[in-house]
Amino acid sequence: MAEILNYEFTGEGMHRVYENEKWTVGIKNWKPANDITGISNVERHNTTDEMFVLVEGTCTLVYGNEDTSGNLSFEAVPMERGKLYVIPKHLWHNTITVKETKMFLIEDSNCSGDNSDVRDLTPDEIKCVKALVK
């Protein structure tokens, strides 16, 4: 007999709460590395888009387009509750959150560290990101 399942995650950071062969749904909560005072890197996924839905709190999506010299030019999008935000594959990004933040994350189930990159930000890049996030 089938039944409806439900999932919850109340800890810090992100936890994949549901996964099948095609996609993953995670619950992402605040963690120190996503606080404006702890931001130190951006990431990109090379084989899949990633989607976020803000449920509680506040989040600013920070993203950087890379030029031919490898420099990033940053922009920021303040998220609105209940809207779906799609991060296209290959786009450097991170989420800046406050302690009350809860988001849903949806991505391909094959997304992993093997097909993603993390880039540490320079002090000047961190200064630029902090200036974008109000």
Please give a structural write-up.
- The structure is a single chain.
- The chain is mainly β and 134 residues long.
- It has a single domain (14-132), classed as Jelly Rolls, CATH 2.60.120.
- The chain contains 1 helix and 10 strands; from the N terminus they run E-E-E-E-E-E-E-E-E-E-H.
- The strands form 3 sheets. A 5-stranded antiparallel sheet has the order 1-2-9-4-7, with no helix packed on it. A 3-stranded antiparallel sheet has the order 6-5-8, with helices on one face. The protein has a two-stranded antiparallel ribbon with strand order 3-10.
- Strand 1 and strand 2 form a beta hairpin.
Give the count of structural domains.
Answer: 1
What proportion strand? over 45%
Broad CATH class: Mainly Beta
Terminal Cα span: 50 Å
- The largest sheet has its strands arranged as 1-2-9-4-7
**How many runs of DSSP E, i.e. beta strands?**
10
How many helices? The count is 1
Which overall shape is indicated by the principal axes computed on the Cα atoms?
globular
Give helix and strand order, one letter per element, not per position.
EEEEEEEEEEH
Low-confidence stretches: none
Biggest sheet details: 5 strands, antiparallel
Q: What proportion of the residues is helical, as a percent range?
A: under 10%
